[in-house]
Amino acid sequence: MEAAELPPLSGRILEHIFQHLSAFQLARARLTCRQWNEVITGSPQLVAKFRLSLERFFCGGETERDFMLENVKTCYSTADYGASHLIQVEHVWVTVGPNIRHLIIHDCWLDLSKVGYMLRYLPNLEELTFTPYYLESDMIKDVKIDYRMDKLATLTIGSTDRIDEVLDLFKQICSNLVVLRVCGKKHDCNEEKLLNLIFASRDTLQEISLKKYNFEDEFLTKISSMDRLELKRLSLKQCYIESEDDIFNLSLAQPLLEHLDIQSAQLRSNEVLVKIAQNLPYLRSLKINLNKLKGSLLDDSLNCMPALEHLKLLSERPKRIDISKFQNSNLAKLSLSGITLTMNTLEGITNNLPKLKTLTVECSEHKSPLPQSVLQSLESLKLKQVTNLETTIYLTKSTWNLKHLQVISCDLSGKLLQSICQQCPLLETVHLESTYYVCDSDVQLLCRTLKRLRSLSLVDCRLVSDVTVENVIVHCLKLEYLRIEYCRKVEKNRRWYQTEMKPRFKISIGPECWYKDS
User: Fold this and answer.
1) Contact in structure between 152 and 176 (CB atoms under 8 Å)
2) What's 295-307 look like in SS3?
3) CATH code of the domain covering residue 166
């Protein structure tokens, strides 16, 4: 008996279905859905899930370029360019430029003058990620900058040899930045250029994220005294800050800060931290370095931050702290790096931090196990370079609600992994990296046990082979992403990638040079 032929779904119903799919899932749906092109191109929200790759536009011939432009339909809002050279082709930018809202330029050999010329054709650009690996700027002085990019709100600038010229270019064309992220090179950064760019957008700027900057003594002072600048997020990563007074003065000048990352600052006294906390009543995220902080008690300072939702405590040298009297009904994420909590603190976490859902423990040694009450309440757990792991994670017959697990550079045995999988049936994401004792049979049991698994990462797992990939394809029916990189027993000529076993999910295998030939 033949099955009844079902009527085709309407475009409106398909659009609602497609809204819940990822870009990878949408691309797979194209193989079976005849209305795919019509539904996708007719919905800006669905088109926004895809990126337009510009590499072929500039590398191909003129005939191929014109054909591709004809089929682009000027509907993409996100564009990606990562080729070796940026060729100036005016009619390409005229066609696709007005619709681009987000442009990503990375790993390119660029002439800054061509960038200045190109940006003229992107009047509606809202976000720009600019991370070339080499930049020439000799001709930029010949480019006439007679345009503005008033809609550009988010600017990310990666480390480059000509970062001062880049900052100067964007200072001329941007005045409404909301988010500014800059990665310097420590030895070749003119802070005046950076200050000028911040000053140009001081009326709208809410977030500044700086990385690898060696500040002069007055840099943060100038930020603090800048009129009309009201920041909500400030992040200083790998930026050497000697004076804790600069951070205190900054907290006085920016009372609206909600996110403060000062892992580079050398705080020496708990009293200063208390004063900083009192100056920032809206603080929701704090990342600090306790390397030079005297004493082990942080209760007074942390209790001054009732709105705190994310706390990261860092120390380059092993440090034991006591926050057993720290009570916060909002804290959902706690990260500890080089920090060991006292037993009193561990036992009180469940009552003192009732909303804690994410815990990260790095570079530490806990002689006592994490309490079961804590593990049962977590949704995400990350363990990195944790010694005596089997002591830290003491398994019982109780069930945990864990959904995301990361284990990196730990002595994770196959037996412990199997026990965790059986105790955490709700796991959706598992990331294992440099766990040298995990083998194919352990991963096979993981695949059979975790029915909800959506993402699996196996990085530098030396005992994992192609057998694992085959087991994942067969047993992980809900998997969307598999990352299997730097696993030396995976063969270059992978039989699992043949037509009959081709994965239905996205897979990343890393550089070919790491895999042996079959």
Assistant:
1) yes
2) CCECHHHHCCCCC
3) 3.80.10
> Of the segments 59-68, 128-137, 300-309, which one has the largest average pLDDT value?
300-309
For 373, how many CA atoms within 13 A lie in the half-sphere containing its CB? 10
Other Cβ atoms less than 10 A from the Cβ of 420: the count is 21
Whether 115 maps to a domain, the answer reads yes
Query: Cα 297 to chain center, whole Å?
Result: 32
Instruction: Give the side-chain half-sphere CA count within 13 A for 31.
Output: 5
Number of domains in the chain: 2
At 340-361, the pLDDT tens digits run 877 778 878 878 899 999 999 9
Do 230 and 206 contact (CB within 8 A), yes or no? yes
> Nearest Cα to 484, choosing from 499, 473, 498, 500?
473
d(CA 467, CA 489): 10
Q: What angle do CA 338, 340, 345 make, to 5 degrees?
A: 145
- Residue 12: count of CB within 10 angstroms of its CB: 9
d(CA 398, CA 73): 56
Query: Each residue of 193-249: pLDDT tens digit?
Result: 899 999 999 999 999 998 887 776 678 888 888 999 999 999 988 777 767 888 888
**Does this model's pTM top 0.90?**
no
Considering only the C-alpha atoms of the chain, give the largest distance between any 2 of them, rounded to a whole number of Å. Answer: 83
For residues 286-301, average pLDDT: 78
Q: What is the DSSP letter of 371?
A: P
- What is the DSSP-derived secondary structure letter of residue 29? H
CA dist 42 and 491 (Å) reads 43
Name 240's bridge partners. Answer: 214
Tokens 């992107």 sit on residue: 122
Query: Considering 149, 179, 214, which residue would you say is the last residue of a domain?
Result: 214
